């Protein structure tokens, strides 16, 4: 099991069984809300296998997403503001790139410029969108929670290897 999966498990459970022995884990503090805005999803998987901005092949069944500026491999906790469902997701691509131009029409440009009126803050894989319950509505208001380099997470992985 990867480190990412262990972190997700720790965040979901306060007790873990290792080798038949139960280990109590202290409650994990959620990362702070860093951004709020619209999230979209990539669609039905038409880009499956295409290369993402970080160089890996896109797999719509993985919990990955695109953000214009967060570092690649940043783990974000996405919360659907309508139904409060949450899912951990890894940044592996750039986007979204839809914005409203000066005439009030939607346009598309590949840019990370902060002076654009961007449509949203995140593009998600279909697996991520399904977990959040957003595939039927397309765009969804979300909170992005993550730890910055200056605020380390409040958990210890040492408990997993006693």
Automatic annotation (TrEMBL):
Q: Start and end of every RlpA-like protein double-psi beta-barrel domain?
A: 35-142
SUPFAM superfamilies recorded for this chain? Barwin-like endoglucanases (SSF50685)
Q: Which PANTHER family match?
A: ENDOLYTIC PEPTIDOGLYCAN TRANSGLYCOSYLASE RLPA (PTHR34183)
Q: What is this protein called?
A: RlpA-like protein double-psi beta-barrel domain-containing protein
From which lineage does this chain's organism come?
A: Bacteria, Deltaproteobacteria, Bradymonadales, Lujinxingiaceae, Lujinxingia
């Amino acid at each position: 099991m990867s480190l990412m999966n262990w972190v997700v498990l720790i965040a979901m459970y306060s007790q873990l069984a290792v080798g038949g022995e139960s280990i109590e884990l202290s409650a994990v503090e959620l990362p702070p809300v860093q951004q709020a805005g619209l999230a979209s999803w990539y669609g039905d998987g038409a880009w499956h296998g295409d290369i993402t901005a970080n160089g890996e092949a896109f797999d719509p069944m993985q919990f990955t997403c695109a953000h214009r500026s967060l570092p690649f491999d940043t783990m974000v906790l996405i919360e659907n503001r309508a139904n409060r469902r949450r899912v951990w997701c890894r940044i592996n691509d750039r986007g979204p790139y839809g914005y409203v131009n000066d005439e009030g029409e939607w346009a598309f440009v590949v840019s990370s410029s902060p002076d654009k009126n961007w449509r949203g803050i995140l593009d998600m894989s279909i697996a991520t969108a399904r977990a959040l319950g957003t595939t039927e509505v397309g765009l969804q208001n979300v909170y992005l929670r993550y730890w910055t380099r200056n605020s380390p997470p409040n958990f210890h992985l040492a408990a997993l290897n006693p």
